[in-house]
Amino acid sequence: MTALLRTRHSVLPGFTLSFSLSVLFICLVILLPLSGLAVHVSGMGWDTYWNVITDPRSIASFKVTVLSAAGASVINAIVGLLLAWVITRYRFPGRRLMEALVDLPFALPTAVAGLTLAALFADNGWLGQWFSLAGIQVSYTWVGIMIAMSFTSLPFVVRAVQPVLEDLTPDLEEAAATLGASPLASFRKVILAQVMPALLTGTGLAFTRSLGEYGGVIFIAGNLPYETEIVSLLVNIRLEEYDFAAASALASIILLASLVLLFGIQGLQARLVKRWHGL
Amino acid sequence: MPRYAHQWLLIAAAFATVILMLVLPLLLILHQAFAHGLAPVMEALTSNDMGHAIRLTVVVALITVPVNLVFGILLAWCVTRFEFRGRKLLTTLIDIPFAMSPVVAGLCYLVVYGSQGLLGGWLADIDVQLMFALPGMVMVTIFVSCPYVARVLIPLMQSQGPEEEEAAVLMGASGWQVFWYVTLPKIRWALLYGVILTNARAVGEFGAVSVVSGLIRGETLTLPLLIQMLHEDYNTVGAFTAAGLLAAMALVTLLLKTVLEWRQRV
């Protein structure tokens, strides 16, 4: 039966086995739980659903999550571009160590990151004391949430931009310089223009990740309802209250947002790559 | 070596960022764990809760990694060695766990397998409890870490192409022989790379596991969940000792990852 799907014959064995087991796995592990949520939500009625997601506490949590994630993504776009640039363009002692450390946020469990950042930015913490001297309260505010989110999603931009920077040939930059462009103008018009698709992809992935971040955030956030409560936490709180309906309704919103972002980023990336090669 | 002042300025800025954002947190873990010397750390390490959490975390990883390893190989073989309808769809679907909030992932499993869930009633009838117990924790961990091996293998096997495997088949090798003697030697480092990433995620998963574990002390607390519990108990040394163990795992992960990346480049 699986032979019907094949568009080109191959002499290699194992299509039926690998195809059916992969599809079975994807259905059981990924699609069944997702449709479970969809069924659960669709059974609850539009009015209940609408009441849950327009509840002031829910709205406040959407706002703080989206704004902090946006702030974190902007930070990551700038810091990520800087790190990728320095790692690919310059040779200096400690470069390899720097490159290896950039992936730390992906390897470090989010709960460890959360616990540590909370201590680091506490009012008497190593970094928090300087912020409180400057009159900026980090822990228990959205600033802390933003910092935690930018930590856990830092590698996305670096890893997206790095290969593009490595492939850039110096010809265009040299041409721009010969034509009298200042270094800043040549960076903006030549390099940034070529890096932009990768930068957008990386920032988009960082934003998606930040929207769903939980372990990294809850330690530093203080979790005050209406102020520093992120959506993922509110979902968990509703669950602990056995309010499955509210938890599922809220979850469906983040799920929808992350799926739209994921497919949007993949589609955009494919289009940009195609346009680039089409030139 | 850079020649201009602005280049050194950029390098200095990058170093400052890395030290402030990445190195300082690691040092802080050590500082907090050993704030009162070695004795409290040893006490925390030998406590029953810690021992149980370490064993549970290892068990979850030991089940998750092989399952996702096999799935990753099967999926990569399927999408890189054959052309068929729906190929793109398969590679898109496995990215879903990367994009999803772990708490939502945990909730999805609860909605299906929990006592009030879609299959929960039926599971209760045959006396099977998956949620708030080890099976549920393993299930969500498999979910959140399933894309890694496939994501590492697919681009590599795509670029290697099927020619060598096809030659082996035409010379009479069986399917198993093709995989064992032709494919596996070509992908072993990438495979190891995928395993390290899967393991790091499986050991460190917090949000999804916290939803389905029920947080029962001495029973369903993995190391990351224990950190939260100790933190809420104001047991700073204990929390940072557990954090130190996980940070050590993360550093070993980074080291192996870097070594493997050099190997692949050569």
From TrEMBL, chain A:
PROSITE patterns referenced in this protein's UniProt entry, alphabetically: ABC_TM1
Gene3D superfamilies cross-referenced by the UniProt entry: MetI-like
Topology within the bilayer: Multi-pass membrane protein
One Pfam family in the UniProt entry: BPD_transp_1
CDD domains recorded: TM_PBP2
SUPFAM superfamilies in the record: MetI-like
The ABC transmembrane type-1 domain, residue ranges: 62-265
Keywords linked to the UniProt accession: Membrane, Sulfate transport, Transmembrane, Transmembrane helix, Transport
Primary location recorded for the protein, binned into one broad class: membrane
PANTHER family referenced in this protein's UniProt entry, alphabetically: SULFATE TRANSPORT SYSTEM PERMEASE PROTEIN, SULFATE TRANSPORT SYSTEM PERMEASE PROTEIN CYST
Function: Part of the ABC transporter complex (TC 3.A.1.6.1) involved in sulfate/thiosulfate import. Part of the ABC transporter complex CysAWTP (TC 3.A.1.6.1) involved in sulfate/thiosulfate import. Probably responsible for the translocation of the substrate across the membrane.
Assembly description: The complex is composed of two ATP-binding proteins (CysA), two transmembrane proteins (CysT and CysW) and a solute-binding protein (CysP).
NCBIfam families: 3a0106s02, permease_CysT
Family designation: Belongs to the binding-protein-dependent transport system permease family. CysTW subfamily.
Designated name of the protein: Sulfate transport system permease protein CysT
UniProtKB/TrEMBL annotation, chain B:
Main location: membrane
UniProt subcellular location: Cell membrane
Keywords annotated in UniProt: Membrane, Sulfate transport, Transmembrane, Transmembrane helix, Transport
Pfam family, one: BPD_transp_1
Subunit structure: The complex is composed of two ATP-binding proteins (CysA), two transmembrane proteins (CysT and CysW) and a solute-binding protein (CysP).
Chain's role: Part of the ABC transporter complex CysAWTP (TC 3.A.1.6.1) involved in sulfate/thiosulfate import. Probably responsible for the translocation of the substrate across the membrane.
PROSITE patterns referenced in this protein's UniProt entry, alphabetically: ABC_TM1
Ranges that cross the membrane: 7-34, 54-77, 89-112, 132-150, 190-216, 236-256
Keyword hit for Zinc: no
Membrane-topology descriptor: Multi-pass membrane protein
Residue ranges annotated for the ABC transmembrane type-1 domain, each copy included: 54-264
Gene it is expressed from: cysW
InterPro entries: CysW_permease, MetI-like, MetI-like_sf, Sulph_transpt2
Record-given protein name: Sulfate/thiosulfate transporter permease subunit
